[in-house]
Amino acid sequence: MAEITKPTDLNKIWASAGAILTPDDSKVALGWIVEAPAHQTENYLNNKHDKALAYLNQHGVVQWDSTTEYHANKSWVQGSNGSLYYAKQTHTNQNPVSDTTETFWNLVLQGTGVVHKADTTAFSRSWLANANSTATGRSQLGSTSIGDALFTASTASTARTSLGSSAIGDALFTAISSLSARDIIGIFSASDNQEGLVERATDGEVITGVDDTRYVTPKKLKLGFGLSLTPDGYIRLPEIYGGFTLQWKRVYVPSGGSFVSTFWPTPFASDCLAAWVNYAEGNDSDVACWVWSKSASTVEVDHRSNSAKTLLVLGIGY
User: What is the set of domains in the chain, with CATH numbers?
Assistant: First the structure.
């Protein structure tokens, strides 16, 4: 469906200056029957609909009321304080503003325009920056005495003491980047002689094999590995070894000069470098057999025996 353009006259309310007659509850439940309704009642209906549209257009999110049943994980409301709330439980008549334990409602967006429990950057820059008292700042931190101490700290050293630290606190309060802060608290990048953080290598980095700063998981060590220990089988080494592949296959050739073409048990990823053939059984060393052609997917063999033979073909590639 195409995008619907917002009407330009949502704030014009039908019968805002006209006569309105509000029907009783029984009439609302019954609705119209075969009758000539009073124009005042029709004005009431249109007025109510227009007001609802204008209200939603103005508020965006409906305000909480005590009679609506709100459903868990579906209902959003605006509190009387201007904050945005999300229902945690299905309920009726539980005011989100007074639900300080967040039993029925989660505070999502505070009335001052600060994201709650989601964006830590917004938290630090706006909630704390907009706190107009020590107590407010303390409550924003979700703490008690620590919040007071931090908001009255006059130096980094004082703030450090409030956090129960030593020299680390000063350094953290003056760190210019997350990397610097990480080093201050003893979380270092790993090296040959230093324990610490290390990033996991991607598949491409494992295959390339030149990066010496990332770790490789057991699963990635086997990347590309293949094995089929059957009469027609293969062994493919992992990608870190170039995907080198050894294959073997039995090929039935009816009689000499037949030139039988067959598929390898699994295609070589790039190319078949070499292929050999011999008789799979019996002593026919005095009768020639050979590989006529080879490719990444097929091999063609033949022999000079006057009878049908089974040949064993070996191939290597990558």
Answer: 131-181 (no CATH), 226-317 (2.60.40.3940)
